[in-house]
Amino acid sequence: MATDSFGDTNRHFWNKNAKSAFTQEWALALSEQLRDCLLSSIDWIDIRKSSSNETPVKIIDYACGNGLVSRTLVDFADVIRGVDVSDAMVDQYNDLRRQSGISPERMHAVCGNFLDSGHNDAIAGPDFYEADAIIMSMALHHCGDPQAMLSKMVDRLRSNGVLVMLDWADSASGHAAGASSHAHGHDIMGNSDASHTISKSSFSAGDMKQLFSGAGCNPDTVGFRPYKETSHIPESVAKVKGGVDMTFFIAKARKP
Ligand SMILES: C[S@@+](CC[C@H](N)C(=O)[O-])C[C@H]1O[C@@H](n2cnc3c(N)ncnc32)[C@H](O)[C@@H]1O
Predict the structure, then answer these.
(1) Substitution site in 20, 62, 64, 96 for ligand 1 pocket (most atoms within 8 Å of beta carbon)
(2) Residue 171: what pLDDT?
(3) Domains of the chain by range and CATH?
(4) Model confidence over 172-218: pLDDT tens digits?
(5) Which of 69, 119, 152, 171 qualifies as a cystine partner to 114, CB 3.0-4.6 A?
(6) Phi, psi of 131 (to 5 degrees)
(7) Segments of the chain assigned E as strands
């Protein structure tokens, strides 16, 4: 039985929109920026390096969608496990992985929700614990209880593992050079077709510090970096005249 009704709402929405979610021009441009942000932050994130005499390096790509984070970071882990509440997203992830010739032992996604005790069989095994890094890209704003979600993630990290979040920055935290004259940092989510799947449209550096610390991460390890450019969400999606320019951030903290 579902115990996270917000997760259930997201599952229905993303199952319906899984195919179209990553084909629109603005979403492709955003994916490219997220990729660039991850790769240019790789030393800063500092995931344990693989070595033959230690346990394999494991990344969990949580709320993985079709696998943008996993495919971007495939060279930085021995094992990557994707988790998403939407089975249509999980199917896309595994199809794209198959097409890339990557083995399922190396990379594989399953359906699950850390906040839903009735939806957890596939994520109960050791593959989904003791991760070196758990990364969640553009999905914290879809969680009914962001604090509970971060706590569940920390439970699944190994000691000194790193939790990484990418999401929309609030207008005070997300100033990027060259922001255009379009509405900036507007609450885009209030009007969009996805508004019912969103609990909080953006996060400040202070919000993230509080969430990481509340989840049991070491507060001294918290880092927050707005991406160098804005991302344009067109009028057709934001339902705001001229569209909106938003800035996303990458933030991290370590489990003690
Ligand atoms: C905007 S997409 C981001 C996908 C991917 N991380 C990326 O950056 O391309 C949001 C994803 O979060 C997933 N999601 C929403 N709530 C979730 C939850 N409680 N648990 C797991 N996945 C969730 C959705 O199914 C969807 O695939």
Answers:
(1) 64
(2) 80
(3) 5-254 (3.40.50.150)
(4) 776 543 334 334 444 555 667 777 888 777 899 999 999 999 999 99
(5) 152
(6) -80, 145
(7) 58-62, 79-84, 107-111, 131-137, 157-168, 183-184, 223-226, 231-233, 244-246, 248-254
pTM of the predicted model over 0.85: yes
Find tokens 């033959």 and name the residue.
52
Instruction: Classify residue 31 as exposed, middle or buried by CB count within 10 Å of its CB (0-12, 13-18, 19+).
Output: middle
Secondary structure letter of residue 104 according to DSSP: T
Q: What is the rounded average pLDDT for all residues in the chain?
A: 90
Provide, rounded to the nearest whole percent, the portion of the chain with pLDDT above 70: 92
Ligand 1 within 6 A of CB of 64: yes
User: How far, in Å, is the centroid of ligand 1 from the Cα of 14?
Assistant: 8
pLDDT tens digit string along 32-87? 999 999 999 999 999 999 887 789 999 999 999 999 999 999 999 999 999 999 99
Residue 246 beta carbon below 6 angstroms from any ligand 1 atom: no
Alpha carbon of 66 to ligand 1 centroid (Å):
9
Q: Cα 244–68–10 angle (5° rounding)?
A: 65
CA distance 190 to 161: 35
Distance CA 238, CA 201 (A): 12
Which tokens sit at 141?
A: 């704003």
